[in-house]
UniProtKB/TrEMBL annotation:
It comes from the Eukaryota. InterPro entries: Expansin_CellWall (IPR051477), RlpA-like_sf (IPR036908). The lineage of its organism: Eukaryota, Fungi, Dikarya, Ascomycota, Pezizomycotina. Keywords: Signal. It comes from Tolypocladium paradoxum. This is Papain inhibitor. Gene3D superfamilies: RlpA-like domain. Residues 1-20 form the signal peptide. SUPFAM superfamilies: Barwin-like endoglucanases.
Amino acid sequence: MVAFTTTLTALAAVFAVGFAAPAQTNDLSSTNPLNIGEISWSKVGYGACDVTSKDTDFVVAVSTFYFNAADQCGREILVRHGVNSAVAKLVNCCSACKLNDIVLSPAAFEKAVGNLTMERVIGAWEFI
């Protein structure tokens, strides 16, 4: 009986190692978490990515947290508000923004929100 119990315990240990859950990592480079924050709009011009943009361009500025995380210039962001959405290119940093807040160009805001009459809305965005 002792031999049977020892063998059973050894087999259980082998199978437990073989079917262990994958290790957790802090690397978010391959994931696109959905961010909820305040979305506003502003006239655009020369940005922190050394790009001059026009109000008709679909561009975005993110908080310093996201901007300084890595080389973010030129990345695309999908912005959603209700049933509307828009894709904008990251060209600037918003030092006044809270963590998940973004600032869109007028054209991108109008597409993502529906109109420019609302200056700020709560919406969702993610890197794509």
